[in-house]
Amino acid sequence: MLEVIGVVGVRIFSNTYANVLQKRLIGRAGIPALPINFAVYLLLGLAMSPAIFLGDWHWSWELFGYACAVGICGAAGNGFLVAALRSGELSVLGPINAWKPVVGMIFGLLLLHELPTAAGLTGLALIIVGSYFVLGADERGFRFRSLLRRDIVLRFLALLFSGIEAVFLKKTVLLSSVVGSFLIWCWFGAFFSLAGLLLVRPETGTAVRLRAGFRELLALALMFGVMQYSTNLAFKLLPVGPALALFQLSGALNLWFGWKLFQERHMGMKIAGTAIVLLGAALIILGG
């Protein structure tokens, strides 16, 4: 139990602070989403390559297929997340991430045969209700047009891909090891991020801005590395649905950082909605 608490605690903090660093990079340096995504994956891949000799794990065609799925979904999910942070508020985009257990549970059921419990399904309902308040905070009440806002659409795309990625990632953990799965995440993410970068050519001057923000990129890569490794450990210890639900505790930190660092407003409804979301996450955990 203490191991689970420690792993999840590290994952929650590193994920939230990575979001803060991403938003700062986008705001101050003006770096587009795809180059940030590729740079983080590449830096982590280079730093962690010696770890390929650690542990006893072997390639197979099945592992290769899941590795490609992890790379595609991870690159897409992280790319959409960075793009959402460009125009969205951390205190809104963070709690929306609570929908990820919905995706995780569905694909966990289909691919890993992890059955949700009655408490888990009730928790999912509460997450949806809580999101209603968070999304309506800036307009003093929920409006369906809120779902069409660019930052909200991008965030939902990010959590869709990252939720699917979580299931494939657990498969790579089961087929290889925690270290092997982490290396797969780094290098396959870098490859598919580069493919996306080549398809959508970066803006002029992006390389100069990347060099100018290199320290922030290093810090972001470190936070992402800690986040992903702790994620892999959590997937080894827990089913996908409860693990993703536990990660939603980062919503409270997102609220605080959004208010304190970026002066975001209308915090009352956001706090109420996030509290309901966290109650839903707790039910999913208890039901897991």
How would you explain this protein's 3D organization?
This protein is mainly α and 288 residues long. It is built from 13 helices and no strands. Helix 2 packs across helix 3 (61-87), helix 6 runs antiparallel to helix 13 (267-287) and helix 11 (240-247) runs antiparallel to helix 13. It is globular.
Q: What's the SSE blueprint?
A:
Blueprint: H1 2-29, H2 33-48, H3 61-87, H4 90-96, H5 100-112, H6 118-135, H7 150-175, H8 178-199, H9 206-212, H10 214-237, H11 240-247, H12 250-262, H13 267-287
Helix pairs in contact: 1-10, 1-12, 2-3, 2-8, 2-10, 3-7, 3-8, 4-12, 5-7, 5-11, 6-13, 7-8, 8-10, 11-13, 12-13
SSE topology string = HHHHHHHHHHHHH
Quantity of strands, as a count: 0
Q: Categorize the overall geometry.
A: globular
Tell me the structural class. mainly alpha
Q: What Rg is obtained from the alpha carbons, in whole angstroms? A: 18 Å
Question: Could you give a quick summary of the protein structure above?
Answer:
It is built from 13 helices and no strands.
What descriptive keywords fit this protein?
single chain, 288 residues, mainly alpha, 13 helices, globular
